[in-house]
Amino acid sequence: MPRILIVDDREENRYLLQALLQGHGYLVDLATEGAEALAVARQTPPDLIITDILMPVMDGFRLCREWKADHRLQHIPLAFYTATYTDSKDEAYALGLGADAFITKPADPDDLLHLVSDLLHLKQAPAVSRFTSDDAVILKEYNAVLIQKLEHKISQLEAASSRASQNEQRLALALEVEQAGIWDWDLLSGVIIWSDRHAALFGIKPEDFDGRYESFRSRIHPDDIGNVENATVTAREQHSDYSQDFRVIWPDGSLHWIAGRGRFLYDAQGKPTRMCGVVVEITMLKNSKEQMRLASQVFESSCCRWRSDRSDRGRGKQDRR
After folding, report:
1. Tens-digit pLDDT profile for residues 292-312
2. Strands 27-31, 48-51: pairing kind
3. Are 102 and 94 in contact (CB under 8 A)?
4. CB under 8 Å to 198, separation ≥6 — which residues?
5. pLDDT tens, position by position, 139-198
6. 17 neighbors 199 (Cβ within 8 angstroms)
7. Which of 13, 74, 172, 301 is 20 to 30 A distant from 160 in Cα terms?
């Protein structure tokens, strides 16, 4: 009986797909994200894998890359089943990675079963990645897909909070627009790749960044280096998102506030292999907050003096009596 591996971080999605496939006689294995799926498949290889894309720890795109690079698994068909990545560019990127099918949720059960049958009886060899081993090309394509998702998200957030004016909400929106710079840090090679926008936010030309961590570190204000590195360690050890605001020193000596957001990616053994994310400048926001803080201090100081003066005048009147 054919064995199918379902990979999805949402329990209800796994349950529905499992019930459908088991109800038609298939054996089903389950995983909640890519790294777990690789471990399961290497122990008991399936005949087909159906995976979501947007998942923690290791997403579907990364899983597909690892799958197609593993000589023990690359002959097994892989199908994406997603409700988030539904654009034609998403499908083109997925198929470029070597996926054998791209299905959007929710699919008609009969159509899905028909596709499963076709994939299990695939006559030709399963697809291979068109990117080969060129990580720079893969990153460029992935960034294009990511930016598209962020642009879609920002439009949703703007519609949902058209009347919102708090600074924190503005920052959350700003982090997802096209003004954000993108970075990708390969922890195995040590090479950091910046988008052109990222370099601009650090006040340099893209060609002036050599991809070394020390070069990045040297541009951070000395008082903020510790916070940046502590936040990085915490995110890595706790498998949590990285979030840190810090100052960078431009070549002209000016200081600029940067908000950095990112996350680690891990292999099947739980070892971090990559860290990627976005940066956006928040200098105006920080200046605004500082101005509000100073204004508050002046106001409070004035109020204290006013209360003190009133108290002194009151005591003076009592003394004259």
Report:
1. 555 445 445 544 554 555 555
2. unpaired
3. yes
4. 181, 182, 183, 279
5. 555 555 555 555 555 455 455 444 444 444 444 444 444 467 888 898 988 999 888 889
6. no
7. 13
